[in-house]
Design goal:
With 258 residues, this protein is α+β, with helices and mostly antiparallel strands. The protein has five helices and eleven strands. Strands 1, 2, 3, 6 and 9 form a five-stranded antiparallel β-sheet that branches. A four-stranded antiparallel β-sheet has the order 5-4-7-8, with no helix packed on it. The chain has a two-stranded antiparallel sheet with strand order 10-11. Helix 4 packs antiparallel against helix 5.
C-alpha cells in the first residue's frame, strides 16, 4: 500500500499572567497548544486519525513533564516562564504507530501556528478509511471517491460503474473475505489475467501473506490466516471491468460463500 501524507497544525497561544516568577526579568505566562488536521483545501478539521497525543515537556515540570490526551484537539495548558522545545508524539488509530515531531514553544507572539507533515506507511484499512476524510488516498485516481464527496455521490458513482445490477458488490466483498488460501490465489490469477489499464492493483513481495484489499463501503477483504504465501495483493473492485466482476461473482457463488 502506498504511503499517505497529511499535514497537522499546532496552534499555540500564550499570555502574561499576574503571578510571581522564579526568574527575574522573565514574567510568568499561561500557554496552551491544540492540534488540528488540515484537509486538502487547507481547512482545519479534527485530528481524529490519532488515538492519543503525548507532550514531553522540559524536565523542570517534573511529574507533569509527560502528558497525554486522548480526544481532539488534544489541548494542553500549562504555566511557566521559559521557552523550550517540546517533543509531540501522535499515536495513530488502527495500530498506525507513533509519529514524533519537535515543537518550538516560544513567546515571540501571543498566537502562532506550526505545520508538520506526517507520513503514514502502509496504513491499515481502518486508518485508510479515516484518512479519506481529509484528502486523497491511493485508489482515488482510479475513480474511487472518498467519504468527503458525500455518501449519496459516492453510492451513485459506484452504481454507474457496475453494468450488471444483479451483482451485490458488498456481498461480493464479503464472499471474497471468506475464501480459503487456494481459492484466493485463483482470484488473484483471474484479476491478473483480465485486468485493464484502469484497474488498480498493487503487489508487495516483501510481505509473507496475502491481503486482498477491495474497498466496498470502507471494508477490506483479507484472510488473516495466510502466513505461507509470498506477497501481498491489493485490488480495488470498482476499477475492475464488469466481465471480471461477473467472473468473481460466479466464483464466490460456486464456492457457496455468498
Amino acid at each position: 500500500m502506498p504511503d499517505v501524507k497529511r499535514t497537522v497544525k499546532l496552534v499555540t497561544e500564550q499570555n502574561i499572567i499576574d503571578k510571581p516568577s522564579v526568574m527575574e526579568g522573565f514574567p510568568m505566562r499561561r500557554w496552551n497548544i491544540q492540534v488540528f488536521l488540515l484537509n486538502e483545501h487547507g481547512e482545519e478539521i479534527p485530528a481524529s486519525i490519532f488515538d492519543k497525543t503525548t507532550y514531553k515537556l522540559h524536565p523542570s515540570f517534573e511529574k507533569r513533564a509527560t502528558q497525554s490526551f486522548k480526544h481532539p484537539p488534544f489541548r494542553i495548558e500549562e504555566e511557566g516562564w521559559g521557552e523550550f522545545d517540546i517533543e509531540v508524539i501522535f499515536t495513530a488509530m488502527d495500530k498506525g504507530g507513533d509519529h514524533s515531531i519537535q515543537h518550538d514553544l516560544n513567546f515571540a507572539t501571543n498566537r502562532y501556528e506550526a505545520k508538520h507533515t506526517i507520513t503514514f506507511k502502509n496504513p491499515k484499512p481502518g486508518l485508510m478509511a479515516a484518512l479519506k476524510d481529509s484528502g486523497p488516498t491511493p485508489g482515488d485516481e482510479n475513480g474511487v471517491k472518498s467519504k468527503r464527496s458525500g455518501k449519496h455521490d459516492d453510492e451513485a458513482s459506484k452504481k454507474k460503474k457496475r453494468g450488471d445490477k444483479n451483482i451485490d458488490m458488498e456481498k461480493l466483498a464479503d464472499g471474497l473475505q471468506k475464501l480459503g488460501e487456494d481459492d484466493l490465489l485463483q482470484v488473484v490469477q483471474i484479476i491478473h489475467d483480465n485486468k485493464t489499464q484502469e484497474t488498480y492493483t498493487k503487489n508487495d513481495v516483501d510481505r509473507k501473506r496475502i491481503f486482498l484489499i477491495c474497498p466496498v463501503n470502507g471494508k477490506a477483504c483479507a484472510d488473516p490466516e495466510f502466513t505461507q504465501t509470498e506477497g501481498e495483493f491489493h485490488v480495488d473492485l470498482y476499477t475492475l471491468p464488469d466481465s471480471v466482476v461477473k467472473m468473481l461473482w460466479d466464483f464466490v457463488t460456486e464456492k457457496n460463500v455468498v
